Amino acid sequence: MSTTVGDLLRVKGPKVETIAPGATILEAIRRMADKHIGCLAVTNRTGRLVGIVSERDCLWKVIAAGRSPRTKLVKEVMTPVQKMRTVTPAILVDECMELMTGRRHRHLPVLVDGKLAGLVSIGDIVKFAIDAREATIQSLEKYITGSL
């Protein structure tokens, strides 16, 4: 498959849920629950990506550690941008899938010139791959049955 992450974002849409570094973990948990998502991009006042905070960060670094989500701040548990892998829209979906599975990343920010252009999850990648393969199967079935 020669589909890029940019192609995936055109289908999925570029909308990314964000949160400020000074927000509480409780706010982050509520936002993720309301939106049915597992990760938020953490952005500063100018909209620049400074990290990501995931449901696992909230659970493992706060709840399981016995800390209060009402007082613990996002910036204290997020993965800072300097310690995470990011991708560009030009990366192939297959490469992105290998990166995510090989490094056990569930979410990757997509950056263009250092600015947040989207966020892809392993679920987005798998869904896109399944949809593409299903389309190929349907085309092959039409070809075989002569109904093209």
Give an account of the 3D structure:
The protein has 148 residues and is an alpha+beta fold. It has a single domain, classed as CBS-domain, CATH 3.10.580. It has helices spanning 5-12, 25-35, 55-63, 74-77, 93-103, 122-145, and strands at residues 18-19, 39-43, 49-54, 79-80, 107-112, 115-121. The strands form two sheets. A four-stranded mixed beta sheet has the order 1-2-3-4. Strands 5-6 form a two-stranded antiparallel sheet. A hairpin with a 5-residue loop joins strand 2 (39-43) and strand 3. Helix 5 crosses helix 6 (122-145). The radius of gyration is 18 Å and the shape is elongated. It starts with a helix and ends with a helix.
Can I get a quick summary?
With 148 residues, the protein is α+β, with helices and mostly antiparallel strands. It has helices at 5-12, 25-35, 55-63, 74-77, 93-103, 122-145; strands at 18-19, 39-43, 49-54, 79-80, 107-112, 115-121.
What is the CATH architecture assignment?
Roll
Largest sheet: 4 strands, mixed
Q: What is the H-and-E element order?
A: HEHEEHHEHEEH
Structural class designation: alpha+beta
Gyration radius over CA = 18 Å
State the CATH superfamily name. CBS-domain
Report the principal-axis shape.
elongated
Number of DSSP-assigned strands: 6
- In the sheet with the most strands, the strands line up as 1-2-3-4
The overall number of domains is: 1
